[in-house]
Amino acid sequence: MEQVQTISHAGISLAELKEKCIHAIFLFCGCVSIFTTIGIVLVLALEGAFFFQEVPLTEFLFGTEWTPLFFNKSFGILPLVCGTLLTSAVALCVALPLGLIIAIYLSEFASSRARSVLKPTMEVLAGIPTVVYGYFALLYVTPLLQKIFPELLGFNALSPGLVMGIMILPMVASLSEDAIYAVPGSLRQGAYALGAGKLQTIFGVILPAAFGGIAASFILAMSRAVGETMIVAIAAGQQPQLTLNVFEPVETMTAFIVQVSLGDTPHGTLAYRTIFAVGGALFVLTFLLNSLSLWIRGRYQERYTG
Amino acid sequence: MRHSVAHNLDIPMINTASSNKQSEQPQSQTSTPCIAVRDLNFYYGDTQALFDISLDIEAGLVTALIGPSGCGKSTFLRTINRMNDLIAGTRHEGEIVVSGHEIYGKKTDLVSLRKKVGMVFQRSNPFPKSIFENVAYGPKIHGTKNKSRLAEIVEKSLLRADLWHEVKDRLGDSALALSGGQQQRLCIARALAVDPEILLMDEPASALDPRSTAKIENLIAELRGDYTIVIVTHNMQQAGRVSDKTAFFCDGKLVEYGDTEAIFTKPQQQQTEDYIRGRFG
Q: Domain boundaries in chain A?
């Protein structure tokens, strides 16, 4: 009697132990990403704190000169932010209209055969390493553009911006298509039943209904463009300039980080610490964009369930 | 358009002349058919859904389509405004004449057909826009731009759909914030706003609670006479309450069609009687 009890008791505890182990393993895996994020934020904050002990925050945020690697150092991040936004804006000018048109075509017009060719092709586009895009911009797109605009410099914001637009195009198209696809078919039927034509249905009913998802995809694409590194590091040049002229070379925040990381800037110096300050600023920017995208999507879902 | 249909009917009447006056009288009383369906067959791909349907739906009356699930009554309803066109691989044989126009004819303009034949769906499907914009959408796409004219149409349509007094102070609010019954009446207002002659209703109350259902039924009674209404319903009592004529469909065939009272009290076909008495379906 007693023996049986002990065995059964031991069996239960073994199973319980197993359960607990599995639980712990899953918890650990889940925590890895959280701890990594916390670690990155901590490093950025700590190194950034050292940086801001020597450089006032106001100079960093509002200064218009960025020369941390020169003898005469200035730490105004605006030229880098400007370069980042400039190349991103060019990219968005390409990706948003084209991506939306592709999404509309795929969801409302394409035959199933056209879809079955187009969608995988787009996914291939998304799988190309960005360094390939970078060389493509520098060695092919820039010379091509120079034939059209002779005043275009070898490094410029236009060419990497355009190529970056192509790079984020699949993301915009695919996410926007998801949003359009999620619009209930009953709305289409309702519009057609009122005598609306196809374009009237798309622009009057479907796109407004999918607005939240489309806007979220746009902002996510922007975040992607802001964080993109290789294309701009290769093709945009390394000259931090406060300019809105896309024909001139610019340096983005990401490209600067690459420049310092790969260069011979000694560890622990102020110049070295700038990459943490710039990285922190970049992190805040993309974090805000991603949060905005999530918020828009959440609001939009509320509109449907409510 | 209506003249041509009336004209067609005139011919046999003239031919039969005075010899048959007794049977002639009721025919001319029960006005001209608004929808005339002849030998309609309908297919989803290889599957035939409707078999040799012929019936005349009379103007100004409420006609109920009843029958077990999958009997083709909704398919039939959707041929009248050609909503089935949206489904790939469908085709039809035979003809449907709406107000004198063969609607599957080559010259048929889908926009004007659907303007003339409004539709209300089983599940209310307001657009994610304001209440006002929902009702104004139809007139807008058909070219009404004048703001005060639009406001007039919206008010009139909402009044007609018995919703105005509940929403007049919040026309700018999202239509999705309305209750299910209100949303369905909004969809009716939206359909009325383009000034149709015919209103197709595909089980308009099946997703609603009894009170909202009663409101929809009252509304149908109020619209009767001004619009030709064709309503698909699963609910026998509802068909009895709201309709003048009833068509009983089974397995894609029209089994029996006649005055609602006659269908419900002394059906001619055994199948109809079995269904109405609840023996199947």
A: 2-54, 78-305
